[in-house]
UniProtKB/TrEMBL annotation:
NCBIfam families, per database record: malate_syn_AceB_Halo (NF041315)
Organism (species): Haloferax gibbonsii (strain ATCC 33959 / DSM 4427 / JCM 8863 / NBRC 102184 / NCIMB 2188 / Ma 2.38)
GO MF assignments: catalytic activity; magnesium ion binding
Name under which the protein is recorded: Malate synthase
Domain of life: Archaea
GO BP terms in the entry: oxaloacetate metabolic process
Cofactor: Mg(2+)
Length: 433
């Protein structure tokens, strides 16, 4: 993995707010509300959105509102602040307007720039367009006496051109002709991407675009940036949002766009290890989380049943019934079960491997065991997993994320201690160092 170039190694949440609301006594009210978010409701990256979330006729006022609100509240906001400017690969006038707004917002005399970490640029095209945006950042920095590269640039991948441009980043970054090392987030924008691709579905809903999410995650990893998924606009579908994040996390995309403070809470907690471990059982094609009762992991559904017989056991899965010995049953159940480790479990395993490594051992076996109770019948199962250095490094990702969150988000310390316990938090901050 290429080394990150910014303070944050992980970004869980990308939260946008309109910069000016038409027809309100205070057009900046949504900015003021977002600036007051704290704890798990506050995003890692707050994006005052002077593009799609703000009407074109209100964008000049929106730029003024950004200055007013951030100069007043930016020092207290616990996350990073990256306003989104207008930009378009095919419109010089739009690019110029965004540039002028950047110049106004970053004027040191106005007091906002010291709290602004960067800007988000939408609707980029090929790599030459990315370099145009980067050059505007450099001009802004020089115009106001800011250090070159001090303003991070995040882009929204909303076209096939932009998707292909991610493959050019490794060759372009680091050349003396650009400052593309300032790149921070690569954010998917599936709505405009769908329009650009001229895609359609029978229901009119957006395609899932798993390929885009994979390509953005891969492009971010190769270029030392951070990948963030686009908005999930069914804000009442909490389960769907969680499923989307789980799919993304398996691709290495740990961040997601959040449209409401409620989505921010879900996205802030989703990539963190769970408080307690849990066993999952594949019950006839449906994955079920087992309930822990009196030292056993219990399944009480009707898709799977287990009975002891004189010769062994009878296991029914769906319409299939099998007679099995105890060893055969254990083997079968090991194939149907999996374990989701808690934070405490992960830290335990990492500490055990670190101790083994200090003792000169390169690999050790970690055992997971449980008593399963299915339909009143119990059986013990155990599985061994070999841990070597590669396994250890892979397990480090959720711990590294936790450490990054704990370092950069002190406003979340109390909630994290409540979630895991102070002892587990302390141990998690020590492993891997």
């Amino acid at each position: 993995m290429t080394e990150r170039r910014h303070d944050r190694e992980f970004v869980r949440t990308f939260f946008t707010s309109p910069t000016a609301v038409e027809g309100e006594d205070d057009s900046a009210k949504m900015l003021r509300r977002a600036a007051g978010l704290r704890g798990m409701q506050a995003p890692d990256v707050w994006v005052p959105d002077n593009e799609d979330a703000t009407a074109p006729s209100m964008r000049d006022e929106g730029a003024e509102n950004i200055v007013e609100v951030i100069s007043e509240h930016g020092s207290e906001f616990p996350g990073e602040i990256h306003p989104r400017m207008v930009w378009h690969r095919d419109s010089p006038g739009t690019r110029y307007q965004g540039f002028q707004h950047m110049l106004d917002i970053t004027d040191p005399e106005r007091g906002a720039v010291e709290h602004i970490d960067g800007f988000v640029i939408p609707e980029v095209g090929g790599i030459d367009d990315w370099k145009k945006a980067d050059e505007f950042f450099t001009i802004v920095e020089n115009e106001h006496g800011l250090e070159e590269g001090s303003l991070a640039m995040s882009v929204i991948i909303e076209s096939g051109e932009a998707e292909l441009a991610m493959g050019d980043l490794r060759d372009e970054m680091g050349k003396p002709t650009n400052n593309l090392e300032r790149l921070f987030l690569l954010v998917d924008g599936e709505v405009d991407y769908t329009k650009d691709m001229r895609a359609m579905t029978p229901t009119g809903e957006l395609p899932a675009w798993p390929e885009l999410r994979h390509n953005t995650s891969r492009g971010a990893s190769a270029a030392g940036c951070i990948a963030v998924d686009g908005p999930y606009d069914d804000i009442r579908d909490v389960e769907g949002y969680r499923e989307r994040m789980t799919e993304n996390q398996a691709k290495g995309m740990l961040g997601i766009w959040s449209l409401t403070p409620g989505q921010v809470v879900e996205a802030n907690t989703s990539p963190l290890p769970p408080k307690t471990g849990s066993w999952l059982l594949d019950a006839g094609g449906e994955e079920v989380e087992l309930a822990s009762e009196d030292g056993a992991e219990v399944y009480d559904g009707d898709r799977l049943s287990l009975e002891a017989t004189d010769d062994g056991y009878e296991l029914r899965v769906g319409g299939d019934t099998r007679e099995l010995t105890a060893d055969e049953l254990r083997e079968e159940l090991l194939g149907l079960t999996s374990y989701v480790p808690s934070m405490d479990d992960i830290v335990d395993s990492m500490e055990e491997f670190e101790a083994a490594k200090e003792a000169g051992r390169g690999a050790i076996a970690m055992t997971q065991s449980a008593t399963l109770r299915i339909g009143g019948t119990e059986i013990d199962i155990a599985k061994d997993r070999m841990w070597d250095e590669a396994t250890y490094q892979a397990a480090m990702t959720p711990i590294s994320l936790f450490q990054d969150v704990y370092e950069h988000r002190p406003d979340q310390h109390e909630e994290l201690a409540e979630r895991y316990g102070a002892g587990v938090v302390e141990r998690a901050m020590e492993v891997g160092l």
